[in-house]
Structures are given as C-alpha cells and as structure tokens.
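Notes continue from the previous slide.

Worked example: a multi-chain complex. Inputs as given:
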Amino acid sequence: MESSQNVIAGVGLADRPRKSRWPARMDLAQSLTGLVLGLFMWGHMFFVSSILLGKDAMWSITKLFEGYFFFDKAYPGMVSVIVGGIFLFVIVHAFLAMRKFPANYTQYRTFIGHRRLMAHEDTTLWWVQAITGFLLFFIAAAHLYQMLMHPGDIGPYESADRVWSGRWWPLYLVALFAVELHGGIGLYRLCVKWGWFEGKDANASRKRLKVLKWALTVFFVVLGLATLAAYMKIGYEHRDRVGERYTPAWVVPNPMEKAK
Amino acid sequence: MAETNNHRKLRFHILRYNPAQPGDEPRIQTYELEEAPGMTLFIALTELREKLDPSLQFDFVCRAGICGSCGMMINGRPSLACRTVTKDLEADISLAPLPVFELIGDLSVNTGKWMRGMSETLETWVHMPETQRDLKRIEEAMDPALAEEIYELDRCIECGCCVSSCGTARMREDFVGAVGLNKIARFRLDPRDKRTDADFYELVGDDNGVFGCMSLLACHDVCPKNLPLQTQIAFLRRKMVTTGIS
C-alpha cells in the first residue's frame, strides 16, 4: 500500500536506475546521418549530371573536387577523403536504421500482411525505404569502395569507360532508383518525424511535403537516367580507347602530369 | 423529398472465430443485408445479429464514437463501426477484429487489458507530491488555453485504432503506441503533474517508446477523434532527444 502511494506521489522516481541515453543518441544520429546523406545525394546527382552540359563542364567539376583550381594541380586524394567520410556516414546510418527492420520471419510476415491489408501510403513508403535501404548496403559499398581506391578515375572518359566498358551501368541503374526512392522518402519522413515545416495545419503541410517529395524524386530519377545514358553513350563511343584520360583542349599542361 | 426504395444489397464478409470454443477454426462468413438510409455499421451489425445470426460477437456501448468499444478492421483499416456509414463503402464490406489486442470472439477484442498494461507501464496519471494531495483543498485554477490544450489530447477514447494501424506495434508487442505517447504528451502539459522531462524519459526514452516510432503515421490517419498524433509524437521526440543528449 505504502509502495503504491509512493508511486502515485512520484516518490523515488529520481532514485531509480537511469534509462540509457543511447536510444536518444542513436535516434538523433540516424536522422542526422540520413539528412547529410540525403542532401549529399542530391548534390552528387547535380555534380555527375554536369556531363549533360558537356565533357568540359564535368571535367571542371571533377577537378574542382581535386583542388586543381585552388592549388594549381590535382589531388585526387581529396576525393578519397570525402568518399571516406560518406562511407563512414553510410555505415553508421545503415547500422542504426537496421534496428527498425523486421528482426525475424514472424515480424517480416506480420508487417507484409499488415502493409497489404492497410494499403496505407506512408506505411508502404516505409517498406520501400527498408527494401531500398537493404539494397544500398551492397550497392553503396561497391560504389564507394571503387571511388575510395580509385579517386583519380573520375572524369568524362574515365567515368564513361567505367560505366560502359567496366560494366558498372546495371549497378548504377539499380542504384539510381534505390537512392532516389530511399533518400526522397527518408527526407520526407525526417520532416514529419521531427515536426519540421509543420506550420499550423500539420495535415496540409504533410500533403505539400509529399507532393514536393514525389516531384523531387521524379526530377532526380529523370535527371539520373539522362545522365547515365550520356555516360553510356560516351563510354560506348570511347570503348576502343579505354584508359585514355580526358583533358580539355584549353588546359595546358595536363593537370595530372603537373601533379607528378 | 421522397426516399427511393432502391437500397443496395450489402454483403458483409466477417471473420468468425471464437477462441474460447474448442475446435473452432477462423473462417470468413458472408451475410447479406438490405441497406437502410443513414445506416451505420453498428446498425447493420445489430440487424445481422437480430435477424440472421445471434452468435455474432461484437462490442458497442455508446453508439456515438465516445466509448471506443466498436473499433474493428473495416475493409482492412481500423475504425469505429458506429461512425462508419455504409453508404460510404462498397457493397462488399470486410470486417475483422482489431489486431494486437486479445481476441474475445469474432469482432470483439479486449482492448482494456492492453490499455491497462500500457497505463501501468507509462504511469498515466497525475504525479504530485503527497503534500499537495489534499482532496479538500480547492484545485488551483488552470489557464483556460492550457486546459483546452490538455483537453484536446484527453479526447482519446482508447479505441485501439491507432495501435492496430501501427506497423511497429504489429511487429513489436512492447511498443506503447500512439495512444501511450499521446498520454505522456498530455500529462507533460498538465501543471499538476510534477514529473520532469527526465522522468518522462525513463518511461518513453527507448525503442518501446518514442524512439521505436517509425513515423508511419497510420495512427494519425486512422484516429477516429482526429487527435494531433503526428504533432505530439514529433514534439515528444524533440523533448526526449534533448533530455537524452543533455
């Protein structure tokens, strides 16, 4: 009796063993890494799609990240540093997001049945997010390892050769849909999860966010397909000269040579 | 205006199963009924039971969306039978009991058992120092705007629709659901409750609480009382993260 009276009065709450702070940290870290990766992927798409503006434009973006325009010579290792950072974020994000996956076959079956029965858009979107996230465990790892170890092989010919002659295009095609769906849904979910841009009418804001989310997803998928097609075309035309590096005619001397 | 007699023939596909009856197997039973003007699912079920099958089990008390007893899966989504008008549905209507909760029989589930467990886990009552618990003392007046804000969240009728619609609750039985998180948000607002955010963190600061929520928002979308669950869970998440990392 005394014990229940104490509970009602809130006595002793402060004396209990404290609950771990890790769930809060992990929730925040999952969101932050997701936010950084989602925004990075949008930026990344703009950078790689510079090929649509021409080989020189793409070359300039590549060399910008290699520091050529700051140090007067190219340091591909700078790209490796960025890739390493992104790789770390991907690992942390994937590890934290994995906690939410169905943990066993029973949970998997339950969720699948629930999703079908409910036919609720946001519930289905989460499932798409989980599946694309799972795919990205493999796709992102393969792509990032390649970029980490061969940062100098990014350029109009170098990338196009990898896409076509290196037969990376099937992986990039799957990656495009996986990333854009996963990232778009993830950024939308971050907004509703933390109450960002909610305003006075949460329902109306959510509708607007969802329209924006789909618009951006379609935009980036179309941009990505056009970009991939451009690299495939260049790679196909360049298939007999694989390994040749691209340098704009107006660049003298060759920045890679200068770096040596 | 004269009403036409061309009422639809409704077909109800109802999940029948009585776990208390040995040997009973879950099955879908179909009943046909003529639709009446202004017919709700509650009226239809009552008519089915009176005219076609007295063994059909379902719950109701208030018939006005206040008690939360008649929550069930209507065409795959949780809702209240008493507030669902048949004219808004196709002629074929599927009915099933709410998942997550203990099945009593047919469409009747024991939400009370789950709700009590949740309430005990989250201590969903006002916590105040013993010295202030003088029942003869007149309670301090509350700011009307604040009282209104608390009342808004206190409109929850514990029907269980949010829990049944939640993918997390379906997968993880210890998850407290939107109803639990909404209650914490409600008591956090109440100035009579002297618990701090650190105390609330002890109750919902884990994957069974606010950090288990995957923001699927089905709870928000199906809530028959239109409670601002999305806003409250986001608010609670921000507060619990601030508490957790500080």
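Summary box: Chain B has a mean pLDDT of 94. Residues 206 and 212 of chain B are 7 Å apart (CA to CA).
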